[in-house]
Amino acid sequence: MKKKLDILRRKTANDKPYHQVIEYETADDNATIATALLDINNRSDIKDINGNNVEKIIYQHSCLQRKCGACAMVINNHPALACDSFLKDYKTDTITIEPLRKFPVVADLMVDRSILFKNLDVIGEFLNSQADISDKNYENAYEASRCLQCGLCLEVCPNFYEGAKFSGTASFVPTARLLNITDSRDFKRLKKAYISHIYEGCGKSLACHDICPAKIPIEKLLTSTNAMTIWKRRRK
Fold first, then answer.
1. Which of 29, 130, 177, 222 is 20 to 30 A distant from 56 in Cα terms?
2. Considering Cα of 61, then 66, then 68, then 74, what sign does the dihedral take?
3. Per-residue pLDDT, 234
């Protein structure tokens, strides 16, 4: 299998971005964008289509099994995890690989996603008391716990942008989890933050539901969380 990988590159955030096209060939039918990038970085003799040396491609990765969300990027204009993007599934000869667009670029395909954790801190993602898990709230709490914090949901969200009060689905899902398992004191605190930073800014486009690599049922979580916090149908 042979593909041309058109990678948007820059050494630092202040450098002008440029495209470098690498002709990549592999005998592995299950090769992914992530394994291709790893292979390229491990080869000292590889050159691009213009005969230029290919310096190490900077990007984030860890588990390579769709468990950590580190390798989120834009592939052929579609936000995805590189470890879950198989070369054989792309029908075009050239695959364009770019960094996520709603986060500051550090270098090449690596972006600064610290806003994800800053937003969780603003909302107050912690409990002052012991969690209360029961058969009634277990399913929602479990589903929400599977969030990878990859940022793909924010990439496709029409309401999330830098500096916005709206924190997006990456904050909503962990907040929904805590709202399901907390007592009345923490519930009131989290409810206030939820309304201010999530409910009031969400346009309910549900683009996040379709893009989520963990397949979290975001629409269902949104409905049940709104019922608890806005319509006061508190779980018993």
1. 29
2. positive
3. 52
